[in-house]
# Entry
Amino acid sequence: MLKKRKLIICAVFLLCALSIAVFVRRQYVLPIVMYHSVQPSVPEGNRLIVSVDAFDRQMRFLKKNNYSVMPLAEAASMIAQKKKLPPKAIVLTFDDGNIDNYQYAFPILKKYGLPATIFLVAGHIGKPDKLSMDQILQMQDSGLISFGSHSINHPFLECITSAPELVKEISGSREILERLLGRPVVTFSYPCGRLNASVRQKVIDAGYSAAVVTNPGKSMANDDVFALKRLRISENAANMFIFWFETTGYYNFIRENRHK
# Structure
């Protein structure tokens, strides 16, 4: 009788452990990190700028610890096809096409051989503090940097009531960038990370293969390739423990449930 009871207890324990493991695994979301600017110093309270020193240490951390840093389009394709991602997969993205991406981030990415995707606001190319076409083409020619669309004028897309205007911001930006870059543009970043069902459908209709958001919450599926969830990296991730924790693939679950 005692032996049977022990077997039952072991079986229950193993079943519970298996259930926990399955639950935890289901919470995994491919870490797609989002940067905006990389600059020598960061004004206090600014969450859109990461210091050059912090960015270098973060990229060195990824390289040293054998992370599989993937181009966004490749990772999104694997998710869409329900293929298994490589161990320690991660994606690097930048929004807005700021000139410091070329000045400070690009040399570091080249130093460590890490790919990234930069989302360009088509109407802002060449403006003060924004990337020029010469800089964009240099980065593209490196083979490390791919470019996606971030609309033409960076509006709140869900607030646009004119269907032609919405199509222009989404489809028109792709057409402009493909003409300038001389190659397909297949990824889109929703300005300010915001979207609704209509905007999402327009992105699909425009022919993009994937799109990224910021923090849509639990209402969006974790494997929706037209609403891929990202993690904004700020200067607090200069602490490598914080950077590691935020890029484990499980931080998104904690973020979405921390106010329960």
User: Anything to note?
Assistant: Residues 31-257 form a domain with the TIM Barrel fold (CATH 3.20.20.370).
